[in-house]
Structure formats: C-alpha cells, structure tokens
Amino acid sequence: MNCLLEVPDLGLRRLHRGKVREVFELGADRLLMVATDRLSAFDVVFPQGIPGKGRVLTQMSLLWFRATEHIVPNHLIQADLSGLGLPDHVLPLLEGRSMVVRRARRIDVECVVRGYLAGSGWKEYQASRSVCGVPLPEGLRLSSRLPEPIFTPALKNDAGHDENVPESRVRAVYGDAVTDFIKQRSLELYRFASRAAARAGIILADTKFEYGLVGDAIVLIDEVFTPDSSRYWPADRYQEGAPVDSLDKQPVRDYVERIGWNKQPPAPQLPDELIAETARRYEDVLERLRRVLA
C-alpha cells in the first residue's frame, strides 16, 4: 500500500501544514482538508508513515460527523472531490482522505473529555487527587472509570504544547456562553460515542474536540473520535489498575520508550513489522465502528 507523506501541488493556496493534515483554500468560505499518512508521536513527526492512516482518520471523522450532527453542527460539507477543479492526476491520491469543510474561526480551546483515568490525568491525580482543577474521589487507580465524565480543557498553542487549564481560565477568555456551549456539547458527544463504541467492543477512555465559529454559530471542526484524537481500548483487554493497550499508535510509543529515544528530533526509524501492526490497529478500529455507525 502506498504511503502519502506529502501532498503534491494542487493549484490551491496552502494555508496550513500540520503534523498530519494539510489545509488548502477553496475560495472565501470553504477549505480542503487532506489527511496524510504521517505519524507523529511525542510531538515529533517520524520519517516513515503508517500506510492508509490518513484514509482511516478521514473515514472515521466522516462517520462520526454524520452520526453526531443532531448533537452539534459541524463544518463538513462533502467528501466528494468532483467539481473542485483539482488536477486529474492528484484525485487518486486524495480520494478517501479529504474533506471539503466550511471555513471557521477557531476557538483556541482543546476540549478534552475524560471518562477514565489515564495518561497525564493519572499522573496529576496521583499528585493532587484532581485533574485540571476537577476534584476526584480517593481510591481511584490507573485506568479506573470515573464516576462521571469530566471536561478538562487546554488552551491551544500552535508553537508548543497545549496548556492544561482549569475551566475558569476558559471562562475568563471566552465568557460563560461559549464555555457552557462547548463544555455541554463535548460531554454529550462523549456520552453518545461511548455508548456506540461499547456496542463495537471498544471503551472510549478519553477524547478531544475543537470548535470554531461560522458567522455567530459554534460548530465542531477538525477531526472527531479518531484514534489520533481519542484513546480507544479493547473492552476485552480492560483491567482496572493496569495500563491498557490502546487501539492506535501505542506500539510505536512502546517501541521508542523501549529503545530509549529521547523524544527529540530526529525520530528513529521504525521496523516494518511495527508499521504493519500499527496500520492494522487503525483499520481494526474503523471496521469495528463502521459496523455500529454505518
């Protein structure tokens, strides 16, 4: 399978080149988002990609955008690339990994919702019995299910790491109306997706959302419930008190930790079998969720 690491010249103005996605201008009010197969871990892009990863991310976002539009509107217009005037030779490269979306003014808050104690949340809980200022009960363990999902936002920083902040910081920047909207919709989205994932034998441990403004309306943007924005666990391997092997790029994280990489560029080369295993995990999540959402 071919691996798309760079998007060729499309004859469009390129607005943004992220770790994974590239964004192009389609007139004043539309954007073309293309998901590459680039792999990022610990905020470093690797020299090798994961074949098919960009298509998985895009197809999963399409499934979830359509399944959740009753909860909150989103920026998706279409996934069909016909009629956009793109060069014929690039269409096979872009097919299945591209979305035409409404242009929005981004709200610079990463809306994280946690249903289980893992990652940085577990580390913070051990130190303070809270996560991002949200107090939690005593006695929780690694991978424990929380009594209720919690909203733990971060202020976005394109030049470095996003900053985990208490909800009060978001209210100080954006006001109560915007904060209430993005908090409540994020929690509703998480609960809806958790129930759907459970039917597929998957636990949605945590996830993150981004929102933007189209006119005065707040809409869901970027990607949603992908393995890159969400922590998916196989339900049959879940055990409270122990780390759970995520259905994403976890094999890559484990490998670079094992070889002692310092998490600074350049990233190390990855074995072919590790790349294949990671690709399989992405495809597995998509197929499981497609069966319950399609």
Automatic annotation (TrEMBL):
Chain ranges passing through the membrane: none
Catalytic reactions of this protein: 5-amino-1-(5-phospho-D-ribosyl)imidazole-4-carboxylate + L-aspartate + ATP = (2S)-2-[5-amino-1-(5-phospho-beta-D-ribosyl)imidazole-4-carboxamido]succinate + ADP + phosphate + 2 H(+)
Record bears the keyword Nucleotide-binding: yes
MF terms in GO: phosphoribosylaminoimidazolesuccinocarboxamide synthase activity
Keyword NAD set for record: no
Pfam families in the cross-refs: SAICAR_synt
Pathway(s) the chain acts in: Purine metabolism; IMP biosynthesis via de novo pathway; 5-amino-1-(5-phospho-D-ribosyl)imidazole-4-carboxamide from 5-amino-1-(5-phospho-D-ribosyl)imidazole-4-carboxylate: step 1/2
Ranges of residues in domain SAICAR synthetase/ADE2 N-terminal: 15-265
The enzyme's E.C. designation: 6.3.2.6
Source taxon at top rank: Bacteria
Record keywords, A-Z: ATP-binding, Ligase, Nucleotide-binding, Purine biosynthesis
Annotated HAMAP family: SAICAR_synth
Entry-linked NCBIfam families: PRK13961.1, purC
Family the entry assigns: Belongs to the SAICAR synthetase family.
Name of the protein in its database record: Phosphoribosylaminoimidazole-succinocarboxamide synthase
Provenance organism: Symbiobacterium terraclitae
Gene: purC
